[in-house]
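Fig. S4 source data, part A: sequence.
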Amino acid sequence: MKKIISLGVVLAMAAAMLAGCGSTSSSAPAAATAAPAPAASSSQAAALTGSVGTNGSTSMEKVIGGLSEAFMENNSGVKVTYDPTGSGTGIQAVIDGTTDLGLSSRGLKDEEKAEGLTSKTVALDGIAIIVNNDNPIEDLSIQQIADIATGKITNWKDVGGNDSEIVMEGREAGSGTRDGFESIVGVKDECKYANESTSTGAVIANVTSNANAIGYASLSAVDDTVKAIKVEGVAASEATVLDGTYKIQRPFIFVLKEGATLSDASQAFLDFALSKDAADIITGAGAVPVAK
């Protein structure tokens, strides 16, 4: 009887052990095949955040506005700002380290390069010679423009216009548009201005309101409130700026500190602005893209 009980106890223990083993073997695979936590998608991992500060040329307003809007649409975590202070101030801001990207509507001078600055050309821009819509003048030579700017010619009748005194409008010292105009026309520091305005828009407004005024403005900023005349028979346009037949033109550039590392957001914005993807935006802003 004791043997039968002992045999029963042994059998019961064996059954318990088998049940335990079965439980262990069935739970192990479940632990091994448990689904891992979902990894961040590549778009999430690469999402940009932060801000990009641009500072400088007022002539680049439409170009930078278009580029910034398109970039922010595709990078909702980034805010691009624009401070229209003029080319000289934008360049100085890069030297001082107070902006991410400087904007200039002229090339860098040797003394600015000596400060450790470098540049990237984003577009070309014609400097339109503008007169009031009521002015009958349609075309001037570069020499005639130079003589008007320096005061050698003071009456419109001397270039085929009305018998009226010429009023020369221009930009302030340090302006990239002024530097470009004076350098190309050959009247550096010799111009006699009735007004020196601090923005392209102000020059256009002054010419709009004065039938005897003449001035210069970025082609990208010119609208139908003024008339852009031909220069030596060539109208200012994207095509004539690109092929070089329109002589009064200059670059639109980003200014950077050589060797400085930009933030991811600033570098991405710069790369986008210089890419073929930005060409249509730059064209729509009235300038000529370098990347095609």
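Fig. S4 source data, part B ends here. The chain has two domains: 49-125+250-289, 126-249.
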